[in-house]
Predict the 3D structure of the following.
Amino acid sequence: MRTFDLAPLYRATVGFDQIADMMDRVLSTEAAQPSYPPYNIEKLGDDAYRISIAVAGFSDADLSVEVREHALIVSARKAEDDGERTYLHRGIATRAFERRFQLADHVQVTGATHVDGMLNIDLVREVPEALKPRQIEISSTKQIEKDVVDASTVN
C-alpha cells in the first residue's frame, strides 16, 4: 500500500489545516475500518440528511450522540449482564462501540430518534445568509463621469 507524505502541504499552506487533517485521516494506514454497527447515510433533500445506525439490543440510556469539533460521535455502552441469563447461542452483538462522522461546515444535527432498533440522526446544512450566493444587478446606464479637479481652484 502506498503512503503519502503530506508534510509539504503543511509547509506551503496557511489556514488549510482542517483539509490536511481530513486527508491524513482518509489516507491513514489503519488496517481495517470498523464495520460494527452497520449504518446508512441518506440524502432526504437538498440540504437534509439522515444517518441510520442499527443498534439492536441497546436502550436509549445506553446510547450517546455528541457533536464535538466538526465531528458527530455516536457511542454505546451496554450495562454488564448480571449473570442471570445463560445463552446457548449469542448472535446479537451488544458490544460497546464508538462511530465518528466528520461533519462539513454549516451542517447541524437537528435531532435523534431511537425506534425499532434503529438510531436515526437528522442533519441539515444551514449556510449563513452572508455566505450564500447573491445576484448582482447589472445596470445599463452610461458611464459615470469622474469628478475632475481644476488645478487653478486647488492652488
User: Anything to note?
Assistant: Residues 17-26 form the longest helix (10 residues).
